[in-house]
Amino acid sequence: EPTAAFVSGLPKAELHVHLEGTLEPDLKLALATRNGVDIGQSTVEEVRASYAFDSLASFLAVYYPAMNVLITEQDFYDLATAYFRRASADGVRHVEAFFDPQAHTTRGVPFETVITGLHRAAADAAGYGLSAELILCFLRDASAESAHETLLAALPYRDLIVGVGLDSDERGNPPAKFAEVFRLAREAGLRLTMHCDIDQVGSIENIRQVLGEVRVDRIDHGTNILEDPALVALVRERRIGLTCCPVSNSFVTSDMKAREIVELLGLGVLVTLNSDDPAYFGAYVADTYTAFARQAGIGRDELVQLARNSFEASWLSDADRQGYL
Ligand code: ADE
Ligand code: ZN
Asked: Where is this site: Important for catalytic activity (predicted)?
C-alpha cells in the first residue's frame, strides 16, 4: 500500500474542488463571530454533528446555509488561502477551483467582492509554489437567465477565470438547459466543464448532452459513462478528463466507484482523483489518493498515472503542462 509520504510527494493537480466546500468548521465559526452572523452552532463539535449526509440533497442543505458567514473580500481571501495552503502541503502544484457566485450574489454580496478576494488568494498562492485558477460554476437549479446574468457580471473579470462549470442539484436540470450560456462562455474564450453526478438516474443522457450539444472540455464525476461504450471511446479519443471524487461518492452513494474508476483508467480514459468538498467529506487530495488506493487495491504505478492524468486534463498552457508530464 502506498505510504502517506509517497502520496504527498507525488506532484498533483486538483481539478474538482469547490472553494465553498473547503470551509472548515473552525474558520466557519471564526467568520461567524467576525461578521456577527448567528449560524446556530458555537463549537466545532456542534458544527461537525450537523454533517450527516447520505445524498447530494442532504449535503447541499447544509452547504448553502453555511455560506452566510462569507461576506467581505477578506472572508473570501481567507477561505481560499486556507485551502490553497492545505492543498500545497498535500503536494498539489496546480489547482483549478470552483466557486459559486450565485450563492453569494443572491444574498447581496457583490460579484466583485467574491472574485476580488478569491483572485487575490490565487495570485498569492504562487508565493508558496502553487499555481491556482478559478472556475465559475453556475447553479443548475437556478434559471438559465440567472446564469446568463452571472456570466455578464463576470465578463469584466474575464481574465481572472479560466473556465465555467455547472453544479448543484442535477435532477430536472439537464445540460441542455444551459447550452446557450455555455456557448457564450466558449465565445469569450473560457473552458467548459459540467457536473454529471453519479447518483443521478438517467445521467448517461446528461453525459451524452455534455459531449454532444455542449461540447465540454471536461466532465466532473461522470463515471456512469461506462453505460455507453461509444461515449467511453469518444472521451478517450478527445482526451476529455473525468474529474472523479471517490470520497465524495462514498457519501452520496455509499460507494467510492473505485471499480469504475479503475476500469476507466485501464481503458485509457483520462480519469483523475479529486476532493470535491474536503471540509465536509473529511479528505483533502492526499487522503483521497490514499483512501482510493486502499479501496481499489492499486499500487504506486496506478497513482502515478492518476497524478499524470491530473496535469494532462488540466487547463495549464501546453508549455506549463509539459513540465509536469
Ligand atoms: N456543489 C458542491 N459540491 C457539489 C457536488 N458534489 N455536486 C453538485 N454540486 C455541488
Ligand atoms: Zn463537485
From this structure: 221
- CATH number of residue 141's parent domain: 3.20.20.140
Judged by DSSP in three states, 4 sits in helix
Indicate which residue's Cα is closest to atom 9 of ligand 1: 168
Q: What is the pLDDT of residues 138-153, one digit of tens each?
A: 999 999 999 999 999 9
For ligand 1, the distance from its centroid to the CA atom of residue 55, given in whole angstroms, is: 11
Whose cell is 450565485? That residue is 102
How many domains are contained in the chain? 1
Question: How many Å apart are CA 229 and CA 300, to the nearest integer?
Answer: 28
Could you say which DSSP state residue 213 is in?
Answer: T
Distance of alpha carbon 88 from alpha carbon 217, whole angstroms: 25
Report, as ranges of residue numbers, the positions in the chain whose pLDDT lies below 70. 199-201
Atom 1 of ligand 1 has which residue's CA nearest to it?
168
Q: How far is C-alpha 244 from the geometric centre of its chain's CA atoms? A: 9
Which range marks the domain in which residue 281 is found?
4-322
On the 0-12 / 13-18 / 19+ scale of CB atoms within 10 A, 239 is middle
pTM greater than the 0.90 cutoff: yes
280 CA from centroid of ligand 2 (Å): 12
* Grid coordinates belonging to 95: 489547482
Tens-digit pLDDT profile for residues 50-86: 988 888 889 999 999 999 999 999 999 999 999 999 9
